[in-house]
Amino acid sequence: MKIVIVGPGAMGCLFAAFLSKSKEEVWLLDKNNERAAKIKESGISLEGESGTWQIKTKTTSNPQEIGQADLILICVKSFNTKLTAEEIKPLLNPDTKILTLQNGIGNVEIISEIAGEERVIAGVTSEGATLIDTGKIRHAGRGETIIGAIDGKTPVQMRAIREVFNKVGFDCKMSRDIKSLLWSKLIINVGINALSAITRLSNGRLIEHEGTRRILRSAVTEAARIAKRKRIKLIFDDPLAKVEAVCEGTQNNLSSMLQDILRKKRTEIDFINGVIVRLGQELGIDVPTNKFLLDLVKTIESSYLQSV
Ligand code: PAF
């Protein structure tokens, strides 16, 4: 199987490093020339949960060098999904599958529109990783990776992907209801990411303070109301308890959005709390806490980005 991982962020490097242990042909595609050359030369270094190790990975900034792929794993930030879906066109053959493990809601729709829905596999992962430097990551936590096709089918390629993932040490399962998984993960990100980015608190600290705990609960309640109206069944019965359990389970993590803010990068807010605000408007449901979180994160972003 020829596997291409797009995006050299924390998740991209984690999957590229693990998959490079397999006997499959694995490529990391990074549109930044200089960075790609650096990773090609030095490989990917990991520390943390899976020990301290290093591995060489074929890395390029030029899709033409790779040729057609069997699996493309999209690990770019959600606001770059559209551009990435265009850029990977030269890698597609009629059977190529595209797997998105990105945060938020909207990526599946964007990739489907550009590359065709039949190719798209969505997934959620509880693996945790933090980017320390170019090609260097801390493997912060281990967890399940669940993948599924939008139509609920389990094509043979998807089973092959699961097998490869499990062989290299991931805990990969398949689901027939990936929408419900994506929304369940969204609810967690809605509660944690923006609030931690604004307050600069680690996930665990968010529920130690009465004020942040109240805001977290309010954002999650609003999002769960939207999910209910859209008849999306979450994989947990009690969203508040679940989000608080994730805060405890990942207590020392700095959420991905907080990491973005600290690095003065654009965040994925539009694909997380922004989705709840947009759907709230469409459905006539008030979501003031999500609007407030969206506005604050946008304000922080605009203090260091020229055009957001
Ligand atoms: O985006 C993140 O940081 C993660 O999805 C989560 C679960 C909030 C843990 O930090």
Task: Give the overall pLDDT as a whole number.
Answer: 96
Q: What is the 3D shape?
A: globular
Q: Let me know the number of strands.
A: 12
What is the CATH homologous superfamily assignment of the largest domain? Answer: NAD(P)-binding Rossmann-like Domain
Q: What count of domains describes the coordinates? A: 2
Distance between the termini: 38 Å
CATH topology of the largest domain: Rossmann fold
Q: Strand order across the biggest sheet?
A: 5-2-1-6-7-8-11-12
**Count of helical stretches:** 12
CATH architectural group of the largest domain: 3-Layer(aba) Sandwich
Structural class: alpha/beta
Beta-strand level of the residues, as a percent range? 15-25%
Largest sheet: 8 strands, mixed
Query: Can you list the ligands bound to this structure?
Result: pantoate
Task: Report low-confidence residues grouped into runs of 5 or more.
Answer: none
- What's the order of the H and E elements? EHEHEEEHEHEHEEEEHEHHHHHH
CATH class of the largest domain: Alpha Beta
Helix fraction by DSSP (H/I, runs of at least 4):
40-55%
Radius of gyration: 19 Å
